[in-house]
Structures are given as structure tokens and as C-alpha cells.
Protein 1
Amino acid sequence: MTWGDVYWLMFFFWAFLLALSFLSRRMNEGLMAVGGLTGIAWGILLLKETLILATIIIFLNFYILFYALFEEGK
């Protein structure tokens, strides 16, 4: 298994978690938070390949994580 395979597997796992959280009857905060954490880990793995894409992914997933933890509970 190469690093490219790991990147794709993490991407599909991330997309699957976020799709499940958005497709549920009400947005599931737990799935969204786990998706955000997975996306952050995916971005950190991508740092050695491309800095700009990894930075965008990390900040997007921090936003998703904080939205799931703090905004959705209101």
C-alpha cells in the first residue's frame, strides 16, 4: 500500500462520515465531529505532499469540527 492509497482511503472515509451526518434525519453531531477529526488527520498526512491543499483541508475540517461541537448544540 502506497501513500497515495492511504490518502484516497482517508478521503473516502472522511466523505462517507460527512455524508452520513448530513443525510441523517437531523445532522448527527458525533459523526460530523469524527469526520472533522478524520479530515484534520488527512490534511496532516497531506502536508508532506502539498502545503496549500493540506492547509485548506485542515482549516475546513477545524471549521466542521467546531461547528459540530459548539454551533449545532444550540
Note: Residues 3-71 form one domain.
Protein 2
Amino acid sequence: MLLVSQKIGLENSFRPTRSLNSEYSSEVKSLGHFDENILLKGLNATRFSENRTREFLSTNTFYRFRDFTGAFDVRRTDGKLAAITFAKTFGRTFINFDVWP
């Protein structure tokens, strides 16, 4: 997840383990242990509970459809709508940040 438009105070929410992409920001780190509420603070995220299906451009060869339930809507500074979802699998938490065209 890359947030270039605003700084978020994540001082106590995670232990940085390595840089994700130093091309954009030296402050963007991978997240070790974190708190969802702290991560979403300042983003004006709105939780939605209904089922949504969106088509998005995959980094793979094919387009995929993705179903969302219990995600968070976030409006970027350029006006595009995005959804943030959290998934816990095999003891790890994954953060998905999907931006709609």
C-alpha cells in the first residue's frame, strides 16, 4: 500500500522490517505488527458492509473480479475511489489497497 498524498502517524502501530519502495518515500515500510485502527486513522475511511464486486486490472495476465465485504472506502486526493481490505491468513495479515479506474 502506498500513500503519497498525506502523512500518517504510524509510530506505535508497527515495527518496520524493510523498505517497500524507496523510489516514492523512505518512510514507506513493510508492516510487522500493526493496529488497523491506527493505520486507518486520518484516511477518512468509511466501512461498508454490503457485498461489492469490482473488476480491476491485475498484475497478472488476466482481468479478475474481486468480491469485497467489510472493507473500507477511501477517496484519494485525485478523487479516485479505493477499497482497503485486511485478510489474516496463516498467521499473517495482508493489506489490500485496490483503486478503481
Note: Residues 45-99 form one domain.
Protein 3
Amino acid sequence: MTTHLFPFLHEYVPPEFFASTHVKQILEAKTLNGSLPILSAIQLLLSCVSDNDELHACSEYELVAQYVNTLITIKNDLKNDKNIIKFEPNKFGPIESKDFLESLDNYDFKSIKTLREWINFLNNFSMFRIHSRNIFKLKRDIDSKNKNSYSPISKRDQADKARQLIFKTLALIPEVEQKELLKVEKGKRGLKKEIRLLISEEDYKKFFDSNEKTFANRWSEVLPEIKPALLK
């Protein structure tokens, strides 16, 4: 990845500037075509699966979470025997998926919190490029799997699994951070908002019907169990 998209990377730039710039790039990514650097490929896939209003409402931390989840989606595809994503060959020849996966294993990218860290991390993968057609193909595959896996289940089972998913997702957030987020529960940065952003769109559709009110109902059901432990 080149840094010409971020001309002031060597200077301090407020996170809000980075966030707005990234959101703009993501929204414009649907027009990208051809061989793409890894950041642009991730932005293209993210633009295909995200809601515009949701992206505009993202804080820097939330946007990074979206990026990381998208990278995990690509990683999971690459680990399959019949992976859709293929890397573009460079001047030295073909690039194997295992080369990318082995390089990725050297980094704890799930711990990245800021866009500056994200860009610095992706600089290590400047040799990897993905063609836009593979990203669109992966998006179609995701849609197909979502449609096929969305088999009818009872509302009671769905609600129970939704609550379990919230608890499982909560465990991904450090306890200290949980307590801080609980203090600002109302607004964009509350604990509820953070958990929602960490849940994949596939699971959000499967267990919450992609419905904000349904998610809010499940959250209100688990909150009485969460709150006492965090307020100690």
C-alpha cells in the first residue's frame, strides 16, 4: 500500500479526520475496478456489506472494528480449499494464499484500535493485491450462504441464541473497557453500540433479523445480568 492517500501521515492528524476520510473512501470503493491493493480490496468488500448511515456514524474505534471483521472474512475464505480470493501475481510470479496467511499470523491485528495502527499494519502487506472481480464474487458467495443458512427457527430459539451471542461478543471486550463503555451507555459509544459493531452482518441477520429494535430487546434482556458485575 502506498501512503499517497494519507499525505499527512507523518504529522498528527485528529482521528475524526482519518475516520471521515476512510468513510469517504469506503463509500466510493464500489466504483473500483481491476487489481487493488489490500486496503482498497477490504474497503470494496466493506462497501458491499455495510449500510451508509452506519458507516457515517462510526467512531474511529468502530471503523477499525469494521475493517478487522472484513479482513477476517477474507482470511476465512483463504483458509478454505475452494477459496474465492486469489492474489494477483507480481513480477516474480504467483502469490500463494498460504504466504498471506503465514504473514498475517505474525500480527495480532485483532488488537488494533486506531486507524494509524491499521494503516501501519497494512503497510506490511503492500505486495498483496486482489482483483475487484474476486471481491464481488466473494460478496455473492456471502449473500448466497446467508440466504441458505437462514433457515426458519423458532422465535424462542432465535432469542436464546441471540442472547448467547451477546455474551460471547462481550467477552471479546476487556473488562476495564466494558466498565468505561457502560458509563456512556447512551449515545454512539455505549457498550451496546460496541457489541453491535463486533457482531457480523451474517449473525445480525440470522439472530436479530437485521432489526435494531430486536437487537435492543435482546440487549435489555441480558443487561440485568451484565450490569451488576461491572458496577462492583
Note: Residues 15-146 form one domain.
